[in-house]
Specification:
One of its GO terms (cellular component) is condensed nuclear chromosome. This protein is mainly alpha-helical. It contains seven helices and two strands, in the order αααββαααα. Helix content is 69%, strand content 6%. Strands 1-2 form a two-stranded antiparallel sheet.
């Protein structure tokens, strides 16, 4: 870095410390200024040491760390009354900032709600679609209610009872057939599948059917 760059960096750091008027380490100043001004850490350390040596800023050592801050002699003394007035102003501005922040959060919440809501045109379209869907369901319902081939409760009960009889008989015959087959297979030299193929028996599983549970 050239001498001109060094001078520019030192001037930037001096202006920053005078503006903020609070203690910083060289690392703090580097972190705060590096992105905007592109200052290297080594250049920052050397510039701050030089500024302290020239008496333009003050340096304090706490253990292994050096702290730098603006020369307070360049600032006018502030009266207690002025300090109290500043404290009051700070409190008022803090309260105002908190109120504004809360207002921003409320507005942001309302904006998100409005953004996620349907527009008037979208609502009109959705209502029309729902009305058309309701009309279809109403037509189907009227067709069902006007039909003359309804099954009476007595007929439905009869069908259910017949089904129970047939399912019960299905289970019974399946069990008998299984018992007979197992008895034959005890003296049969081949596998169960080979036996079924030879006698030409198709099982429920071959037909992909299952006995109803009830």
């Amino acid at each position: 870095m050239s001498k001109k760059d060094n001078d520019t960096g030192a001037a930037t750091i001096l202006a920053y410390l005078n503006e903020k008027n609070r203690p910083y380490s060289a690392q703090d100043v580097f972190s705060n200024l590096q992105k905007q001004h592109g200052l290297g850490k080594t250049a920052v350390v050397k510039a701050m040491e030089l500024l302290a040596l020239e008496g333009k800023i003050k340096e304090k050592i706490y253990g292994k760390q050096k702290i730098y801050f603006a020369d307070q002699g360049q600032f006018q003394d502030v009266k207690d009354a002025d300090l109290k007035a500043m404290d009051c102003q700070i409190s008022a501005l803090s309260a105002e900032a908190q109120s504004v922040t809360q207002g921003c959060k409320q507005l942001d919440s309302e904006l998100k709600e409005l953004t996620s809501s349907l527009t008037t045109e979208e609502l009109v379209t959705e209502v029309q679609e729902l009305k058309a869907e309701c009309a279809q369901y109403r037509a189907r319902l009227e067709a069902i209610m006007s039909a003359t081939n309804h099954v009476t409760p007595e007929e439905r009960e009869k069908v259910h009872k017949e089904r129970e009889v047939y399912v019960k008989e299905w289970r019974k015959r399946k069990r008998l057939a299984s018992d007979m087959m197992n008895a034959i297979l005890e003296g049969y030299p081949k596998t169960k599948k080979q036996f079924l193929d030879e006698v030409g028996v198709e099982t429920d599983e071959d037909c992909k059917v299952v006995v109803p549970s009830s």
